[in-house]
TrEMBL record:
CC annotations in GO: plasma membrane
Subcellular location(s) per record: Cell membrane
Stated name of the protein: Protein kinase domain-containing protein
Keyword Lipoprotein carried by entry: yes
Species, as recorded: Hibiscus trionum
Sorted UniProt keywords: ATP-binding, Cell membrane, Kinase, Lipoprotein, Membrane, Nucleotide-binding, Serine/threonine-protein kinase, Transferase
Composition skew (Basic and acidic residues), residue ranges: 42-52
Protein kinase domain mapped to chain residues: 96-373
Residues that span the membrane, as ranges: none
Entry's family note: Belongs to the protein kinase superfamily. Ser/Thr protein kinase family.
Membrane topology per record: Lipid-anchor
PANTHER family referenced in this protein's UniProt entry, alphabetically: OS07G0668900 PROTEIN (PTHR47985), SERINE_THREONINE-PROTEIN KINASE PBL5-RELATED (PTHR47985:SF41)
């Protein structure tokens, strides 16, 4: 049974994944989107753990959570999410007006809204009813985002849990998702330029670093992908959708055992095969997103025969020879990128998607490497970049990781 996408990672192709989780994936507007799926191969015990709480208990958890405003991050008290009535949600969305519809994912439909009380523009996500997994994700989302505060994480303004209704109210991200700008092109839409792509990667890495290193307890995101990176004014990126997030391993434990959940093409092979979730599972997904930004290719491309080609499987043989690198760049960039920056970005991506989780860098090293990269902006009028040839501590760290091409490219700084 294919581990949703990861079976094709070391090889080039695999069968088109069968849709086992019909409710979540069977919506027509999502036909071309990366598909989320749970892997039923993982141990019975961990499956049971994921399925045991009933929705009433979970909902009670959310309500209690909202009352407990003193949840702390780094020892500081944070404000709990606001609880909205369904009437307030109806007023905000004009009763879910069609022209307020923003998009639809596995959780349900998303609408733009205006909160009358504060005059704030928001995005409101309505959970498909009767979905137990959805209720679980709803609780995880509220609990993770209520305790988190970072410029690269989308803000949860509140939620509504009245009768059967489950809704999440977020800050509105005016430019939609990275997916919209990279893959779901509208006619006349300008492709993202190199500097913006690298800024988006660096911002997303900073959001992930906050979850991994700065939150207390640390959190594994588990759902990093282009559609979950939302863009605000100036393409400022924020991570969204924390429904699958899990508190990371504590003490001397190295992993958390869970039912395998995620999205085809983004899931680390080690996690898909064992159900053992680690911070390095997120690093792998980050590497896939970085590869998408560099190459313009999707995490999984389906041929006419509905066979899947995974981006990592496509990229790995090309990492072996730097003469391939310029051919890996997104043709829509039309050559407008710095050659050295391309090598460095590919080096970071190659490290992140390594097969062995312990060979992948820690997120703080990725952040430092990408901060360095973005501090040397590409200027098409001045192709010989005036970058000072200095090595940051993080790059030295990354160099120390054993792996493919990446070493050579960072050494050539
Ligand atoms: N806070 C927001 N501001 C603006 N648009 C949003 C916001 N949240 C979601 N959207 C829009 O709604 C669409 C659907 O989002 P949603 O998170 O439900 O699905 P998804 O990320 O595409 O899939 P998945 O359920 O697998 O995460 C997104 O593509 C995005 O364009
Ligand atoms: Mg999403």
């Amino acid at each position: 049974m294919g581990c949703f996408g990861c079976s094709g990672i070391s090889g080039e192709e695999s069968e088109y994944p069968r849709n086992k989780n019909k409710k979540r994936n069977d919506n027509s507007s999502n036909k071309n989107k990366p598909q989320r799926q749970a892997n039923s191969d993982s141990s019975k015990e961990s499956i049971k753990k994921e399925e045991s709480p009933n929705s009433e208990q979970l909902l009670l958890g959310v309500k209690n959570f909202a009352l407990n405003a003193e949840v702390s991050v780094d020892g500081k008290a944070t404000k709990a999410a606001h609880s909205f009535t369904f009437e307030q949600v109806i007023a905000a969305t004009g009763n879910f007006r069609l022209d307020y519809f923003l998009g639809e994912g596995g959780f349900g439909k998303v609408y733009k809204g205006l909160l009358e009380e504060t005059n704030q523009v928001v995005a409101i996500k309505q959970l498909d009813q009767d979905s137990l997994q959805g209720t679980r994700e709803f609780v995880a989302e509220v609990s993770t985002l209520s305790t988190a505060e970072h410029p690269n994480l989308v803000k949860l303004i509140g939620f509504c849990a009245e009768d059967e209704q489950r809704l999440l109210v977020y800050e509105y991200m005016s430019l939609g998702s990275l997916e919209n700008h990279l893959h779901d092109f509208k006619p006349n839409q300008k492709p993202l330029d190199w500097n913006t792509r690298m800024e988006i990667a660096a911002g997303a890495a900073r959001g992930l670093e906050y979850l991994h290193v700065k939150m207390n307890p640390p959190v594994i995101y588990r759902d990093l992908k282009c559609s979950n990176i939302l863009l605000g004014e100036g393409y400022h990126p924020k991570l969204s959708d924390f429904g699958l997030a899990r508190v990371g391993p504590s003490g001397d434990k190295t992993h958390v055992s869970t039912r395998v959940m995620g999205t085809y093409g983004y899931c680390a092979p080690d996690y898909a095969m064992t159900g053992q979730l680690t911070f390095k599972s997120d690093i792998y997904s980050f590497g896939v997103v970085l590869l998408e930004l560099i190459t313009g290719r999707k995490a999984v491309e389906y041929s006419k025969e509905r066979r899947a080609e995974y981006l990592v499987g496509w990229a790995r043989p090309r990492f072996k020879d730097r003469r391939n690198f310029s051919q890996m760049a997104d043709p829509l960039l039309q050559g407008q990128y710095p050659m050295k920056g391309l090598y460095q970005a590919l080096a970071v991506a190659a490290m992140c998607v390594q097969e062995q989780p312990n060979m992948r860098p820690a997120i703080s090293d990725v952040v430092n490497a990408l901060n360095y990269l973005t501090s040397h902006k590409y200027d098409p009028n001045n192709c010989v970049q005036s970058s000072r040839r200095r090595k940051t501590a993080s790059l030295v760290n990354i160099n120390q990781a054993k792996g493919a091409v990446a070493d050579r490219d960072f050494k050539s700084f």
